[in-house]
Sequence to fold (448 residues):
Amino acid sequence: MDAAVHVLVFPWPRQGHINPMLQFATALVDVGVQVTFLHTEHNLRRLAQAHPPGLRLLSIPDGLPDEHPRGFLAFMESMCTAGSAAYRALLLSLVCAADAPVTCVVADGTMPFAIEIPEELGIPALSFVTHSACSYLAFLCMPKLVELGETPFTADDLVSSVPGMERFLRRRDLPRGLYCTEQGDGDPLVLKFAEAVGRTSKACALIFNTAASMERPALAHVASGTSDVFAIGPLHARSSSAASPSLWREDDGCMAWLDGHEDRSVVYVSLGSLAVITHAQFTEFLSGLAATGYAFLWALRPGMVQTTSPALLREAVGAAGGKGRVVEWAPQRDVLRHRAVGCFLTHAGWNSTLECAVEGMPMVCWPFFVDQQTNSRFVGAVWRTGLDMKDVCQRGVVERTVREAMASDEIRAAAQAMAQQLRLDVAETGSSSSELERLVRFIRELSV
Ligand code: UDX
Fold:
């Protein structure tokens, strides 16, 4: 263990952010760096599985009572006030510790305060981006997009103010908030994210959980306006950094159910850890899936479908042809690796996109919000590893796109070629591994 270097890793306290930052922390531990991983007290109580060995875990209050629903804006508000005050106090004590003081912070760029506070205290801080580089670039360009009126709404017009994407990025593919309106330019969620991206792009370095082979042009554009950029992903594909404790209990029973199916005969469906859909949207997905005739495994988190109890959802799936299986939370990486799964109907969250890409699995994307609109455009129009349903939620479209993704040799070939390249990227001499080594050297130099 390198006693002179002690990194505090602090993710935005949501599943899709904890996972990649925990994989990053584990990769640091693997090369002998001392790491403290910071959760909120609420999450630390919920985390079902043990963390990887060698990590010190600490927690701060997020300022909300346990039963609070923690919707984005209320949660952000509380983290920026109560959370940030607790973080400042903790950081001060960690920096002044007589034994192995913290020498460097890697914090999630979703929380500008998590980078600005250490900088105020004279501790180097790096920003970790859990989104794709392409969506990060779209967020960086948001002020200009708003100024020129190229704001997110449901139009097919091409956007000219995101460099490198002028030929294929439409307004429909721009980051979107929860409340898509015809104007769409004042969405508080998107503006909040854009502001955070603008502020954290000033950190002394940006770390992306992506591979240069996937996003070289976007990374180059981001790098041209910032201090240093490291593309070290997909982190979960590094064999020694596969940790991801879940905030929900994983239902492993679905693996035996998958064992009973033919190769590539099952559609896996998950919309990630944050999306909440209406009952009408649930019904469109269910009808479309049932019409394909394929068996499907659907991860339906409690509370994911507005106003509908889990029992009613299971009943509806059971009544729709008898080929569906519901779990509240799936062991997703194992599911995507299973020979019976033929495609993934996903919201195109960046972790799900990377997990799919590493397995060479065709995707059908129904992006929900924030970065997912941009990710899904890349899947459908740039990488061609899947199909992008975009903002359309109709049973006929679900049926058609799932059928096509299950049957298309072109899509499967593109997905498998990408998987092969990503395996090379994370191999010992690959570009992501070299970038990780460069990053560890950078952190060591900052820490002296
Ligand atoms: C959002 C953003 O869209 C994403 O880009 C950002 O980086 C994090 O927040 P989220 O809804 O959390 O996304 O989705 P995603 O990024 O795909 O992360 C979900 C994680 O939960 C994945 O690692 C996935 O494997 C895991 N998961 C999901 C399970 O393990 N089981 C499930 O049933 C569903």
Observations:
- The first strand starts at residue 2 and ends at 10.
- The chain has a mean pLDDT of 93.
